[in-house]
Structure formats: structure tokens, C-alpha cells
Amino acid sequence: AKHGTDKGIQDVRLNGGLLRRSSTLSAKSYTDTYGRFFGPLRHQSLNFLEIGILQGASLAMWEEFFPSAELHAIDIDRHCKQYETPRTSVYIGSQSDSEFLTDVVRRTGPLDVILDDGGHRMEQHRVSLVTLWPHLKPGGMYIIEDLHTAYFPKFGGGASDSTVEALKRVLDRLNNSEGPDPLVSGVKSMWCSAGIAILFK
Questions:
Q1: Better pLDDT: 165 or 9
Q2: Catalytic residue at 3?
Q3: Taking CA 35 as the corner, what is the angle to CA 58 and CA 93, rounded to the nearest 5 degrees?
Q4: Quick check: 31 and 10 in contact, CB under 8 A?
Q5: Which range among 3-12, 50-59, 116-125, 157-166 shows the weakest confidence by mean pLDDT?
Q6: How far apart are CA 85 and CA 69, in angstroms?
Q7: What secondary structure letter does DSSP report for 76?
Q8: For 74-96, b where at least 16 C-beta lie within 10 A, e where not — what string?
Q9: How far apart are CA 157 and CA 117, in angstroms?
Q10: For the chain, what is the total number of helices (H) and then of strands (E)?
Q11: φ and ψ at 20, to 5 degrees?
């Protein structure tokens, strides 16, 4: 909540007073998950990519949390270039444009963490995952946030090709080598909670 991101809890209180309301967006409590999986990596020299910048709150959070990381971010809004810093590179383009994504990873090099907090449409999830997964390092994490959109038709959800259905096929393949082909291969494990999934390579 310190930086105003909706990834945390709604309010933080310090000495009985309100420190900061996290965001005008609804709080997701994803920081509980990130504390669990990112905590051991905090001081490593990670190569980190986030899709979706909005008002730059999460980038400020990642800069503070990962003091040795090289940070990269993608957004379709050109105004998001203002959130570039000496340690954070911002690339303007669509996450559903595989050529644009391929050009981005040419510049970033192999990635340790990829976090999709972009447009949340099913085709955006799919194109980003298929294009970026090969550029994730072995042992890396690919994270998809706001999975509840997979049930909303306005995001392309509620169908047999939704992101949740695609993740079910990953789970099938993890447990049955003759199961249906998943969108990506080489998934070592998968972790899910409300609204969020992490694929480990």
C-alpha cells in the first residue's frame, strides 16, 4: 500500500493512523503471494518484466523491493514513458503484438520473472505467454494476475479457450504426460490462488 498499488491490502495503519490508501482500484492482496515467492530473491540481480504500468505504482514498489534488479515494463499508453528511471526501462506497445514482444525481449535478454498485469483479455494472456515463455530462464516465474476476468465475457472469458481453461491443461499435462497439449511446454510446477497463477519453468 505504501506506493499506492492495488496488489496490496486496502489500508495500512501505522501508530493508529492511516498511512496510505492503496489505490482507487480494489485491493487484491497479491503482496502476500509475492512476499512468499519473491522474499528469498529480494537481493538477487534479477531481470524482471511487468506488463501493465497504469500510474507506475507497482514499478515504484518493485524498485524498492528489488534493490539489485534490472526492471522492464510494457504498456500501450505512451504517457507511461514518464515512469522510466535509471533502473527501469519502459517499452510502449501492445502485449497482443508478438512482434513487439519479441523486440522487447531482444533488448531485455532472458528474464527471471515475467508478470502479466496488462489488459487482462484472454487473447492478451495467450499471446504474451506463448511469445514470452521461451525467454524465461529455467527456474523462472511467469505470473498472471486478475484471473477472475477469465469468467467475464467482456474480457473474452467464460469460454473453453479462457486463460483458466488453458491453465487447467497445464495441470493436466503435469499429472498426465498423455494429456492435452498445453499452451506452453516445460512447466515444472504451477501455483494458484484467488486471482493469480504462477508457472515455474
A1: 165
A2: no
A3: 30
A4: no
A5: 3-12
A6: 13
A7: S
A8: bbbeeebeebeeeebbbbeebbb
A9: 16
A10: 5, 9
A11: -170, 140
In this structure, the chain runs to a length of 201
Give, in order, the Cα–Cα distances in Å from 110 to each of 87, 134, 135: 17, 9, 5
139 φ/ψ sector (left φ>0, alpha ψ -120 to 50, else beta): left
pLDDT above 70: percentage of residues in the chain: 86
Q: Considering 3, 72, 120, 125, which one is annotated as catalytic?
A: 120
Helix, strand, coil proportions of the chain in percent (round to 5)?
35, 25, 40
Please tell me the distance from the alpha carbon of residue 168 to that of residue 30, in angstroms, as a whole number.
Answer: 21
What's the chain's Rg over C-alpha atoms? 17
Q: Kindly tell me if the per-residue pLDDT of 26 is higher than 50.
A: no
Closest CA to 92 of 104, 106, 74: 74
| Assigned C-alpha cell, 148 | 477472475
- pLDDT (average), residues 70-82: 97
